[in-house]
Each structure stands twice: as structure tokens, then as C-alpha cells.
Amino acid sequence: MSSFKIFDIAGSALSAQSLRLNTVASNLANADAISGTADGTYKARLPMFKAAMEAGGDGSPGVQVLGVVESQALADKRYEPGHPLADAEGYVYAPNVNVVEEMVNMISASRSYQSSVEVMNTAKELASRTLSLGR
Amino acid sequence: MANLDPIFGIHADAMSVQRRRMEVLSANIANADTPGFKARDIDFAAALSSAAGNGAGTTPSPRALTTDARHIPIGMGGSGIDSAAQLAYRVATQPSVDGNTVDVQVEQAKFADAALHYQASLQFADGKIRSLLTAITGQ
Asked: How far apart are CA A86 and CA A78, in angstroms?
């Protein structure tokens, strides 16, 4: 009987959400990284979550990060003939990062992180109260 | 635990079930952003009667009968609260497009409820221990 399964579950959520925050930070930081070719631009990073059945045992899975994938959306093509990186036709390519989407992702990730922290706090308090039973 | 069962009564079992329930609810909260994840919960009354039914001297828990070969047995998968028999899927009020049925606010409310009930059982057990200590020390 493991009394501390909640910590494993909430902990996996914390690491998954912080990875999501990392990808958001990376996407926002590179949102204006202009490139001269469509293939050379930065692609938005997206984490893939999956319920990890083995982490929490039966019925109470943690979160597993399957990996980080690159967005397949097309790079933003801009006509800027004066730009030093512009190609022969005068186009530069901006990353396919949608800044508004990233901000929403950031808020969602931080709220989910907070929820898991609350769960962990409650579990910790209950566990320490159980340990001090009869004192 | 068997020797202490008459002292703590139902609260030992109730605490186990609430702890298990908090695990399931914390998994729901953890997977609030996982595509395709279905929120689950424990039928507390069924789980408690099943857990209490395993102890000696208590009334046996009710079992669902299967009268057809195609029926799926309920509560036969194992004994105790760790069997998945009492786990059910929550009916989602507004499921996401990605198939996720977790409503974080609902799960947080249920988690707070389970934590409060756990604390209540904890206080009852604590009171029992204190009264026993009073009886033992005789002061």
C-alpha cells in the first residue's frame, strides 16, 4: 500500500506542465526570428501529453510526455525586399508561432500547475496529520 | 489492523477509501490537459461497503448477480478497495473537442470534499486514541 501515490501523480503533472511552459517560452522567444528560407525558420514546439497508466497504477494514471513535436503550419511569408535576409523575390519568412495561442497556452499551463500544487499541498497536510495521529 | 478494527469502527475503512478516491481525483486533475482522457471517480458507498465487508464480524457487502453469460460481473474483480470495480467514468457536462472529460472545478470540489471527509475520519480516530490513552494512564 503506497500512501504517496498522489505525490507521484501530481508530480508527473507538474513536470508535464512545466515542460509545456518551457515550450511556450521557447515559442514566444523565437516568435520574431526571421529567416531567409521557409525551411530555415523556427517551428512552434508543441508537447504531447498522454495518461501514463503504469505510473499511478490502476485507475489513477499520471501524465506522460510522449515528446515535443514541431507545428506543421506554414511559415509566415512576408514581402520585405529591403530586409538583408530577403530571398531573390524579396520575401522573408517568420516562424509559424501564433503569439495569442501561446499566451493562452501559458495561462492554461500555469493554472493546471497551480491545481496540481494545491493537490500536493492537501495530500501533504493530510499525510502529516495522519502521521501525528494520537499525539 | 484487524485488532484495532473494533476501536476505529468504520473510520479505518473510510480513510482508505477516501485516500483511494483522492488518488483517482488527483489523476483527473493531473490529466486535465491530456487529450482523450476520461475523468473517473469512485462510488464511495459501494467501495466502503466492499472494504468493510472484508473485515470479520461485519455484514457482507451486497453482490450483484449475473443471470446471463453475457453479463459483466460487478465487484467480482477482486476484494478490497484497490479493485477497479467501484471506478466509474464521470458523465461530462461539457466535454472538450479533444475527447477530454475533465472539469477541473468539479474535480477540485470533489477533492476538497474527499479531503474534508478524510480529516473528519482522522479526528474520530484521534479521539478514540485519546480516550484509550486516558483509560490506559488512568488520569
From this structure: 9
**Domain extents in chain B:** 7-137
- Nearest Cα neighbor of A94 from A27, A47, A46, A48 is A27
Q: What is the pTM of this model?
A: 0.79
Determine what percent of chain B is predicted with pLDDT higher than 90: 38
Among candidate residues B31, B22, B45, the one with its CA nearest the CA of residue B110: B22
Cα separation, B64 vs B126, whole angstroms: 36
Query: A97: which 3 cell numbers?
Result: 508561432
What is the per-residue pLDDT for B83? 52
Residue-wise pLDDT for A2-21, tens only, equals: 567 899 999 999 999 999 99
- Subunit contact B108:A112, Cβ cutoff 8 A: no
**B32/A56 CB distance under 8 A:** no
Grouping H, G, I as helix, E, B as strand and the rest as coil, residue B37 is: coil
**Could you give the angle at the alpha carbon of A60 between the alpha carbons of A67 and B5, nearest 5°?**
155
Report the gap between the CA of B88 and the closest CA in chain A (Å): 9
- Select the residue of A63, A122, A129 nearest B111 (Cβ to Cβ): A122
- Look at B84 and B116; give whichever has higher pLDDT: B116
ipTM value greater than 0.95 = no
Q: In this complex, is the C-beta atom of A24 within 8 Å of any C-beta atom belonging to chain B? A: no
Tell me which residue in A63, A115, A129 faces B122 most closely, judged by beta carbons: A129
Our measurement of the distance from residue B29's CA atom to the centroid of its chain's CA atoms, rounded to an integer in Å, reads 17
Q: What is the SS3 assignment for B73?
A: coil
Residue of chain B nearest A10, judged by CA positions: B30
Chain B environment of A115 (Cβ under 8 Å): 29, 32, 104, 108
